[in-house]
Amino acid sequence: MVVELSARSRQILEAIIEDYIATAEPVGSSAVARRHAMTFSSATVRNVMANLEEMGLLTSPHTSAGRVPTEKAYRFYVDSLVGLRKITREEKRLLIQRCRQSGAGLPGILKEAGRALSSLSNYMGIVVAPSFTSDIFRQIEFIRIGTRKVLAILVSSNGLVQNRLVDTSDDIPEHELLVMSNYLNDLMQGLTISQARDRILAELNSEKVRFDRMMSRALQISEQAVTTGEEEIFLEGQARILDQPEFSDAARMKEIFQTFEQKGRMLHLLSRCMNADGVQIYIGSETPVSHSAGMSLITSRFTTSNNTIGLLGVIGPTRMGYSSVIPIVDYTSRLVSRLLSEI
Amino acid sequence: MVVELSARSRQILEAIIEDYIATAEPVGSSAVARRHAMTFSSATVRNVMANLEEMGLLTSPHTSAGRVPTEKAYRFYVDSLVGLRKITREEKRLLIQRCRQSGAGLPGILKEAGRALSSLSNYMGIVVAPSFTSDIFRQIEFIRIGTRKVLAILVSSNGLVQNRLVDTSDDIPEHELLVMSNYLNDLMQGLTISQARDRILAELNSEKVRFDRMMSRALQISEQAVTTGEEEIFLEGQARILDQPEFSDAARMKEIFQTFEQKGRMLHLLSRCMNADGVQIYIGSETPVSHSAGMSLITSRFTTSNNTIGLLGVIGPTRMGYSSVIPIVDYTSRLVSRLLSEI
DNA sequence: ATTTAGCACTCTACATCTGCGAGTGCTATT
DNA sequence: AATAGCACTCGCAGATGTAGAGTGCTAAAT
Question: CB-based contacts of B150: which residues, under 8 Å, 6+ apart?
Answer without folding.
Answer: B142, B143, B144, B165, B166, B168, B172, B177, B221
